[in-house]
Structures are given as structure tokens and as C-alpha cells.
Amino acid sequence: MIIILVKNFGDLLVSLRANNKLTKKDLAAFIGYTAKQLYRIEKSECIPSLDLIMQLSEFYKINLLKYYDIFIKHNSLDSFIQFSTLINAIENANYSLVEILYGEYEKLSSFSTGENLRLIYYAKAFCCLINKEYNQSLDYCIKGLQYNNAEEFYVNLSSEKIYSNITYNLISCAGSNFYFMEETEKYTTTMLTLYENITKHFFSNKYVEYLNSKFIIRFYSTILNNLSNLNIEKQQYSIALTFIEKAIKYSTETETGFAILDSFYFTKFKCQYYLKQFKDALITLDYCLMLSITFNKKDDFHQYINSLKLSYPNLMESTRLHDILKKYNLYNLSL
Predict the structure, then answer these.
(1) Which of 51, 188, 191, 325 has the greatest CB tally within 10 Å of its CB?
(2) CA gap 257, 255 in Å, rounded
(3) What are the backbone dihedrals phi and psi of residue 143, each rounded to the nearest 5 degrees, phi first?
């Protein structure tokens, strides 16, 4: 199949969709994207990921990579690689590298607009959040989301206005800042908005759920964990348990987010503890410690163990807890 008479890669995608008599909404549902994301790609407002190119190639039974090479200029491809490099540094929590990269990339014209510029703001917000500079971090989030101030963002926050992975990250980062600034209502609204958006657009049926990117699965699970902890603070333990069990389910079934799964199990442990389900809580704690050790997260499992004496005294006399700690050679840790 040879496609001609198109000006850019976005036009090519429009042509393919029209030839197959699909609406943007139809295609978005098939490939696990939102119609807004697809609209921006077809308008050439952002560069499609290689993952999407492969999905569409399989869907249309045509090798789109060669057309990608024809229509996407080399500097755009360089930009895509730089974008991916910065995202990977953030996901790996390599803070020093993130600072180096955004300092270098923000000087490039290719990072002066659109999704690339939003990524620069997110990288800055991310580093400020780690450094506990919450007001500055929130300011970067708001600028990246193209609002004038935090209050305007909060008042106009809508699940219908979220259209990209970077937008998800910026809103989540804004929510984290609200949390640490003790603006609980704004934090709650932000987390619920993200939850409602992803539930509506990505988990409406099993086929779309299966096609979702690992980012969305991991992000969704993290939001569920946040909502669980929020409900623990409100002493709504049954609701909290429902959220965290859903987070664990998605993480394990899709084999994503294993490196943070220990924190999900510790949240579940807290829910079961406060519901006085002590036997189940100990089993869950065992999973949490096992995962911490498996992924060599020494600081985390030391923190879990040290918190038992202070926060969960009803478990301290348990023979089962003694066996768990002995199993992992942890019984001598501050207990």
C-alpha cells in the first residue's frame, strides 16, 4: 500500500483512518488512547511515540516506520530521543541527571513549545518536589499546565482536559505539592480527578485495558495507592482497602510497577491492621518485606520494620511477627 498526497505524518494518519472509515473516537478506543491525544498527533502538534507507530502499523497492516522516517525530520527524531532520555532519568529517580538534562534541553528551540516544554516544567517541578521546595514545584506545575496560578488550576480542574502522559504527571505532581503543603481538599480533588479520567478513558472495557501502555497502568496503580492512604487518614479503612487491592491487582496482572509493589502491600497491611484483620495483615507484611528484599530496597524495608514498634503495637506480641522477622534476619532492627 503506497500513500501519497499528504503533507506530513499527521495527514498520513488522518488518511489511513479515513480510508478505514474510522472516527477518532473509534480508533482511540482500539489503540488505548484518548481522542484528544489522537487529535494532537493527527494535527502534528506532538511527535507520536515509536510504541504508537508499531501499534498503528500492526492495526493498519502497513509498515509506518518508513513513512515516519520520511516525514519526521532528523531534528525531530533527535528531540524524541532527548525527550525519552529525560523521561527515563525521571522514572529512575536520577535527580542529578534530570537537572543536567533539563538545563541542557531547555536551551534548545525544539524544547521551547508544546509537549517538550511541558516536560521541562515537569522535570523542574519534580526536582523541586524532591528538594521540598513545594511552592516553587507547584509554580512549575502550573506553568507547565498553562494556568496563571494555582487557584485557577484547582477551580478549573477537569478530567476532560487531561490529554497526555506529561499532563498526567504535572497534575499528579501538583497534587503531591498540595499534600505536603497540607491543602488536603485540593490534594483529594486532584487525585480523584486523575482516577476518574483514567477509569473513564482507559478502563471502560477489557480490550482497551489490555492495550494500555505500561505508563498508564503504573500511574493508575500509584493513584489508587494515594487514594488508599488518603482514606486511611480519614479512617475509612474499608474504602482504603478496596483502592489498594485494585492497585495490587493491576500491577501484578500487567507485570508493571513491581519495584514499588512493596509500598502497595504496606498500604494494604495498614488497612488490614486498622480493620483488626491481624492474621491477614501479617501475611501481607510478609509479602511487603519479601518484595523489599527482592528489589534490594534496604532503606524501605528498614523503614517498614522500624515503624512497627511505633505505629502497630498490637502486632508486637505476635509469634507470627517474630517468625517473619527471624525469616528475614531483621529481628534485631530497632526492636
Answers:
(1) 191
(2) 7
(3) -65, -40
Closest C-alpha among 222, 193, 197, 198 to residue 209: 198
Separation between Cα atoms, residue 2 and residue 145, nearest integer Å: 39
Architecture of domain 74-202: Alpha Horseshoe (1.25)
- Long-range contact set of residues 283-287: C-beta below 8 Å, sequence gap at least 24: 285/321, 285/324, 286/324, 286/327, 287/262
**Would you list the domain boundaries of the chain?**
9-72, 74-202, 213-335
Least Cα distance to 174 among 183, 159, 165 occurs for: 183
Angstrom distance (rounded) from CA 169 to CA 125: 10
CATH topology of domain 9-72: 434 Repressor (Amino-terminal Domain) (1.10.260)
As a whole number, the mean pLDDT across the chain is 83
The three grid cell numbers given for residue 217, joined into one nine-digit string: 497502568
What pLDDT, on the 0 to 100 scale, is given for residue 57?
Answer: 83
DSSP per residue, 197-263: HHHHHHSSSHHHHHH--HHHHHHHHHHHHHHHHHHHHTT-HHHHHHHHHHHHHHHHHTT--GGGHHH
Q: What is the pLDDT of residues 111-135, one digit of tens each?
A: 988 788 999 999 999 999 999 999 9
Of 138, 136, 134, 132, which Cα lies nearest the Cα of 151? Answer: 138
Check if 9-72 and 213-335 are the same fold: no
CB atoms within 10 A of CB 96: 9
Say what the pLDDT of residue 211 is.
Answer: 41
Confidence at 39, pLDDT banded by 50, 70, 90: confident
pLDDT tens-place string over residues 304-314? 888 887 788 76
Query: What does DSSP assign to residue 109?
Result: G
Higher-pLDDT residue of 153, 203: 153
Residue 316 to residue 322: CA distance in whole angstroms: 8
Q: Which residue bears the cell 480490550?
A: 207
Name the amino acid, one letter, at 87.
Answer: I
